[in-house]
């Protein structure tokens, strides 16, 4: 059964409206990507300053103790913070990070606390058999990242006070190129030889000829640097995760826009064909009527 002109007009109108919505969502995703990427870049200089402070205080101790040395304990609490997505149209975003967490957790022996950021990634983790702890809501803007990071650091500090020693890990999706992203696993605490090598490779040399000194409260200053290091690391992980999420959504919107354009083109062709068929029928009726009048004469 052929479609009527009215039905085709309605389909074309609905497709056009949907196209407008998709274009708006595409624009919002592009704007969000830009602001999250700029937030990460803005942290660059501050992060280098923190690394410089860490580098300068690596060799310092207070009564033989340093905030950078790992506490030897048989009981270590592993804290895993996982950033996901609570928005739609992001494909396998949460599944990818949940699978990565499950694989790494399987290699960890001992007590572990999993802190999900986002309800949907928490659901994926629970479905995968990973027990989760306190749930944190995802931020919806750059300005909302700082309060979230503050809450996460407070939770980490609360857990640290109850455990002889902790190990802190981050899991998030990071943009690669275009709409592509990859799951990242980052080891933040405790500081080990690999971390020390990384800091030294980034800084290499103290900028002045005089070595840095801390006259009083070496460990206090070191812990202050550690907290700032954790803040920057968490902020960057969250911002990169949100940028990757919006890149995935932008890709989905681009595909949807192409599909809508193809649909509009097809509907337009069918409309023109149906309209032409109706015109042909009307002309045929006119010609037939004229011929009938001629025969009657």
Automatic annotation (TrEMBL):
<keyword id="KW-0375">Hydrogen ion transport</keyword>
<keyword id="KW-0406">Ion transport</keyword>
<dbReference type="Pfam" id="PF00231">
    <property type="entry name" value="ATP-synt"/>
</dbReference>
<keyword id="KW-0472">Membrane</keyword>
<keyword id="KW-0813">Transport</keyword>
<keyword id="KW-0066">ATP synthesis</keyword>
<comment type="similarity">
    <text>Belongs to the ATPase gamma chain family.</text>
</comment>
<comment type="function">
    <text>Produces ATP from ADP in the presence of a proton gradient across the membrane. The gamma chain is believed to be important in regulating ATPase activity and the flow of protons through the CF(0) complex.</text>
</comment>
<protein>
    <submittedName>
        <fullName>Alternate F1F0 ATPase, F1 subunit gamma</fullName>
    </submittedName>
</protein>
<keyword id="KW-0139">CF(1)</keyword>
<dbReference type="InterPro" id="IPR000131">
    <property type="entry name" value="ATP_synth_F1_gsu"/>
</dbReference>
<dbReference type="InterPro" id="IPR017709">
    <property type="entry name" value="Alt_ATP_synth_F1_gsu"/>
</dbReference>
<dbReference type="GO" id="GO:0046933">
    <property type="term" value="F:proton-transporting ATP synthase activity, rotational mechanism"/>
</dbReference>
<dbReference type="InterPro" id="IPR035968">
    <property type="entry name" value="ATP_synth_F1_ATPase_gsu"/>
</dbReference>
<dbReference type="GO" id="GO:0045259">
    <property type="term" value="C:proton-transporting ATP synthase complex"/>
</dbReference>
């Amino acid at each position: 059964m052929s479609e009527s002109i009215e039905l085709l007009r309605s389909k074309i109108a609905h497709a056009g409206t949907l196209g407008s919505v998709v274009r708006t969502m595409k624009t919002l995703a592009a704007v969000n990507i830009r602001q999250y990427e700029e937030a990460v870049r803005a942290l660059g200089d501050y992060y280098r300053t923190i690394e410089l402070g860490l580098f300068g205080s690596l060799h310092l101790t207070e009564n033989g103790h340093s905030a950078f040395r790992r506490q030897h304990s048989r009981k270590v609490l592993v804290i895993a913070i996982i950033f996901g997505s609570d928005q739609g149209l992001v494909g396998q975003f949460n599944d990818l990070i949940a699978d990565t967490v499950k694989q790494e957790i399987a290699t960890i022996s001992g007590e572990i606390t999993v802190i999900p950021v986002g309800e949907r990634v928490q659901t994926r983790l629970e479905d995968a058999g990973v027990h989760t702890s306190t749930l944190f809501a995802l931020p919806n803007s750059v300005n909302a990242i700082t309060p979230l990071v503050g809450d996460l650091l407070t939770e980490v500090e609360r857990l640290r006070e109850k455990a002889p020693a902790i190990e802190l890990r981050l899991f998030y999706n990071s943009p690669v190129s275009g709409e592509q992203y990859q799951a990242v696993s980052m080891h933040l605490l405790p500081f080990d030889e690999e971390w020390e090598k990384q800091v030294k490779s980034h800084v290499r040399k103290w900028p002045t000829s005089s070595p840095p000194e801390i006259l009083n409260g070496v460990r206090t200053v070191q812990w202050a640097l550690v907290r700032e290091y954790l803040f920057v690391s968490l902020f960057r992980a969250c911002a990169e995760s949100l940028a990757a999420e919006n890149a995935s959504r932008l890709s989905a919107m681009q595909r949807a826009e192409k599909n809508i354009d193809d649909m509009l083109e097809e509907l337009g062709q069918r409309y023109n064909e149906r309209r032409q068929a109706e015109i042909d029928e009307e002309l045929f009726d006119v010609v037939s009527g004229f011929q009938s009048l001629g025969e009657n004469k």
